[in-house]
Design brief:
- Two copies of one chain form a homodimer.
- By secondary structure, chain A is of the alpha+beta class.
- Chain A folds into two domains: about 80 residues, Glutaredoxin; about 120 residues, Glutathione S-transferase Yfyf (Class Pi), Chain A, domain 2 (Up-down Bundle).
- In chain A, about 50% of the residues lie in helices and about 10% in strands.
- The first copy, chain A, has nine helices and four strands; from the N terminus they run βαβαββααααααα.
- A four-stranded mixed β-sheet of chain A has the order 2-1-3-4, with helices on one face.
- Chains A and B meet through β4, α3, α4, α5 and α6 of A and β4, α3, α4, α5 and α6 of B.
Chain lengths: ~210, ~210
């Protein structure tokens, strides 16, 4: 397999974690978002969405991190990233989507460019925008996790899964923007548990070949 | 089952379509987003995310439209909203996510409120923002659909599925903001095919009990 990814992209980071948890290897092909390489003609031919990441598995081209993770789950069921029980699966997916739909899209490169280039926002206003969506999203997640008997060492029980794949990259982003995490003890505790595992360590942005120190 | 939904919310609309395609009935409990009823204490107890929709199935509370649709797919497999083949499933999920992650979140109530209340955008600037994300998202979708041999009468083949559940409400939104759809002949052709089906007709915002004429 080949994974087109960018070291700091949270959707790439999610996918790398899932591959690692499954014990799968994909050759990492860096695409530089900072220089807009993802919008160039070479990458656009591979992925017309011009977004990160893209997984190539044999003849198949796969896009959208959550669709890729579901694909890996179906093709390589062990170890599972979703519980067996139908309702519990829905819970894990809902937690993953609370990050992937309600936080992450607002802080992507394209809305941030729109805010600065079309609306003339200052750097400070952009950072405030990002902090707002991360903090308000984390308030919801902390609440969802605290109130559920299914929350364990990880977002769901004693093994890491799809929700953790989404949560950890979002925390990396939060720290990048110096967001105060003291109000989110459960989220940070789960993140700390993940940080000890080889799959999460190997997937960390700082451990990617294209990382800028 | 009970579905907490708002007539014009695209995530509610998606879920209503999926229920209809499965031939399932859920009592519709309207929640008024315009009066911020979803942020009130009654609804917050039901769904701490304070977002639409929420499906109650017996003792289970389900949130996030795509997690609900996957749940319905697993609990009530017939008729399927995802193909059988693993790669094709990933394709359909990626199309659904291209709407649910890359278009819809930017045009939700909360970012629009932020744009007007915190950043002082005019109504015209907000509409331009919405049009931008819908049009650029549709350009990508049209391209994904045109270049795939799997595209048929619907987003994937000859039967409607998860991607159609997401696409049709986004088109409803696009029309609401008078977006020129002439550049998206395939998307509009699929939308027209969906519009003939009872499940899509019954789920249409104008056919909901809380619809404002």
């Amino acid at each position: 397999m080949k994974l087109y990814s960018f070291w700091r992209s949270s959707t790439s980071y999610r996918t790398r974690i899932a591959l690692g948890l499954k014990g799968l290897h994909a050759d990492n092909i860096p695409v530089n978002i900072v220089t807009a390489e993802h919008r160039g003609s070479v990458y656009a031919k591979i992925n017309p969405e011009m977004r990160m990441p893209t997984l190539i598995d044999g003849e198949h081209t796969l896009t959208q991190s959550l669709a890729i993770i579901e694909y890996l789950e179906e093709k390589y069921p062990e170890p599972p990233l979703l519980p067996l029980n139908i309702y519990e699966r829905a819970r894990v997916r809902a937690l993953a989507l609370a990050v992937a739909c309600d936080i992450s899209p607002l802080n992507n490169t394209s809305p941030l460019l729109y805010l600065s280039q079309k609306l003339g926002l200052t750097e400070e206003q952009k950072v405030e925008w990002m902090r707002h969506w991360i903090s308000s999203g984390f308030e919801v997640l902390e609440q969802l996790l605290i109130t559920s008997p299914y929350t364990g060492t990880f977002c769901h029980g004693a093994t890491p899964g799809m929700a953790d794949c989404c949560l950890v990259p979002q925390l990396y982003n939060a720290r990048r923007y110096h967001i105060d995490l003291t109000d989110f003890p459960l989220i940070t505790r789960i993140d700390a548990a993940c940080a000890k595992l080889p799959a999460f360590i190997a997937a960390h942005p700082s451990n990617q070949p294209d990382a800028v120190k």
